[in-house]
Amino acid sequence: MKLINLHLNTIFSFLESTITINDFIQELLNNNIEYFGITEHCNFYSMPYFLNEARKHDLKPIFGLDVNVKIENNLYRFIVYCRNKESFMNLKMLSLNYGKKGYIDLAEIRDYSNLIWIEHPIFGYYKKTNNILEIQNHYFAISQYDIDNSEIQNIFDKCLLINHNSILKYDDNSIIKTMSNISNNKIFESIYEEFKIDIETKNNSKLEELIERTNNFAKKLYFEIETKGFKMPKFKNDKNFASNEYLKLLLFKSIREKFDKYSWTDEYQQRFLKELKVIEDLNFADYFLVVQDWVNWAKNNNIKIGPGRGSAAGSLIGYLLNITEVDPIKYDLIFERFLNSNRVTMPDIDIDVQDNKRNDVIEYLLKKYGHEFVANIVTFSSLGKKSAIRDILRINNIAPTLINEISKNIENDEQDLLVEYNENKNLQLSLAKLNPNDESFSTRILNQAARISGFYRQIGTHAAGLVISDQPVISIAPVQYNSENFLQTQISMEYLEDFGLVKMDILGLKTLTTISNIVDLIYQNQSLKINLKDIDLTDQKTLELLSSGHTRGVFQVESPIMIKALRQVKVNNFEDIVAIISLNRPGPMKNVSVYAKRKFGLESIPKINNEYDKILDSTYGIIVYQEQIMKIAQVVAKMTFIEADNLRRIISKKKVNEMEDIKSIFIERAMKNGYEKSLATNIFNSIEKFASYGFNRSHAVSYSIITFQMAFLKAHYPLEFYTSCISSAHGSQDTIAKFVNEASECGVEIVSPDINLSESEAIIKNRKIILPLTLIKGLGPEIANSIVENRSKYGPYKNFLDFLLKISSSQSIGKSTIELLIKANTLRSFNYNQNTLLNEIQKNNTDTMLFIKMFKNNIEGVSPNIINSYKPSEILNQDIMFEKKNEIELLGQVYNFNSSASNGMPGQTSFIDMHVGNEYLAIVNCTNIKQKISKKGNNYFELDLEANMQKIRAFYFTSNQEILNVKGKTIKVTLEKRNENIFYLRSIKEVLNEER
Questions:
Q1: Which end of the chain has the smaller Cβ count within 10 Å, N or C?
Q2: Sequence spans of domains, the chain
Q3: How many angstroms separate the Cα of 393 from the Cα of each of 10, 320, 732?
Q4: Is residue 523 within 8 Å of residue 529, measured between CB atoms?
Q5: Per-residue model confidence as pLDDT tens digits over 67-92
Q6: pLDDT in tens, 520-553
Q7: For residues 39 and 33, what is the distance between their CA atoms, to the nearest angstrom?
Q8: Secondary structure letter of residue 973 according to DSSP
């Protein structure tokens, strides 16, 4: 007889099952099964996947939960179902509340009286204790082997034939055991049976009765889960207008504010009416109202919002509502690329917000719509090949060094592990070390790692997405609390719309925080209020900066490949920026040089047809944007923009089955429009060639505005620009060093961390950048804040004794921190060298330390005369080499001791000013050194060298291992500049000693 199985864990019951959804569905189809039960370990993560498959194959899934119940301090498992559609809400509530503790107490079962409680066939209370609980709607899961057990007879009427299903094949028992050890769940107590549908009854009437009872029971539990219809909240306005009317009210007000009767041309009017009709016809007014509301709230509360993102920047109505700051008509953007009347999904308006204030926006939404109506979105993390093999090796007690070696030799985390093993000699050799006497051990490890790779391990939270609903989210879809006690859907992003939930992406963008900080610094230092919306996009100083490639810290264009493109194209207008950002991606990147050559007349622009050529005029005959493809289709083949967008989508996604049809339609319509077949075919082939590379112009324009804004700030306000960029680096020494060195070259004075000047972020004082205390390696924000707070509370640190007294009450600052501060040269203003200050704190019985102990809790009781007359107990000689080395180790480079680089020419001190092909004698600090092996098998070394706050990386070809000893030292070297960024080290003339 066929059995409807009422208990199944899949890989969504993390590390408890090897059953994937596709494999299980195939098993059902192979056995012609219609009904099936899904009971993940207290989650509904697999629900949307099963619902999707059920619709395809006309199946009937029954959703329940597998939960832990705490009884007499022990945990037992129950399979829980809802009695009917009405009680499904209660089942979702059980899942929500369960997550707080990871179990429910026995007493809580009465709160869910309309649910059905079936004791687990292996881990149930009755199975473990042989005792019977007195609870409502209580059933027992038994296997076919229990049916003749005499103890079962008293409860047989309440029994159902339910197996514990977590494997499809018996051999996966070893995998279950491995995963159990990885997760430390310790659930593996016996050998599990493989999934069975056909049960051999052998004319056992009792077994047949049990199967029939179970099947009838299961069918009564089935109900269809409705997932249609968007649940967008109705936007409430203070005038109680209908949403469409209120939207128009806001739009007309904006038109009056942004345009006059001369600038609001007929083109704008027609575009406005077209967009408004689409939005009204699709009932999307509330969506636009909700988005504009929080965006405008953010802008009014000094939260920086990006000018636009994605195709939404192609909407005039989005611009009028201040959702975007991009005029789509001015920049020739297409609305249909964003939204058209054929769309069956919600519009997708993604918004960038400064990342340090994203939570403020979320708090606003929670307050406005209610905590139950707003939720984060779940994501799933799976085991990669490296993590899988590391976990398996760990539970087999393999030495960490060998684990690291094996993991390091896995090169491609995307490739099948077994395939890579056969191709990767290093991986084979490292795995052979596991047990040289037993090859089967490494084979078993490899096979297990390959088997569990890709299985889900844990959940996360979508970085940007939120759902906002017109009713409590739990009434629409299962939810849970995430680690921050914030409501989170149990439905992943791709299935939200199936449940009628609307996703909004609120993306934290660090660049916007940096821009906001720069603008604030300009106001603080110069009393200037900068409105970046008003800057001139033809500003020559900004364009010159971009053209020069001096774009470190400038959004999107600071990588070497972008710098090269900027210099090639010699940016002299905003459209160049848009094109470079669009072209500098894998695929179209080769067209950057073509664009540059055609721009300067070094290569002719191919002529196809006047209409076609005009569309590509701004990009010199190159198809750069998706919108250009749409315009070509519209002009050449007289397609509507809706049809043109469909053509773009088919070609860009290479939908082979639809490609020939759309090609025929394009050519046929072009011929009707007067084009020769050969020309129409040629044009279509051009579209086809570039379509997969075409970039969204709306997005490119929006992000180019951010690029221009940052370049403008760097060109006109370098002091504030570098200060903000240094703070944004959050203590990353390499990143900060690059900004510091570049700022120094621009004439900006830099002050290394100072105990009396520095704060936890970079600041400006007297037109100098004061580097933050957090730059110091090993000194975190908590200690930095404590130092600043003490200074604020008690006043500046007058000398070393005063400093020790004032920080003595701080729990976070101990002897090791004081040593860090001394070695990082933050106490240099006290006018004693590091050896002297370190000596003061080395012994607890020095006069200084005894004095600190005496007055630790009575700072106010210390006479100012004692502090002012302080002198160290012993003055030691300064060791400049020691202090330089400390700065390199703790600050990343030397800040307070000048080096010089010279070839005998006066003033030749800059690495940048060195000429390619020449050799130079230079005195430099070696901040780091790495040994490498070339492709030919030869030894060489990479040295990071620093002089006068400039850094380079030099290559030294030698096998002499003593070179490793120069790290942290000042050395005299001969350098050859090979090209703009590559230096070869020809010799180390000498290592400077202390006297030098």
A1: C
A2: 21-221, 243-380+461-510, 384-453, 516-711, 748-891, 919-991
A3: 24, 59, 33
A4: yes
A5: 999 999 999 999 999 988 889 999 99
A6: 999 999 999 999 999 999 999 999 999 999 999 9
A7: 17
A8: E
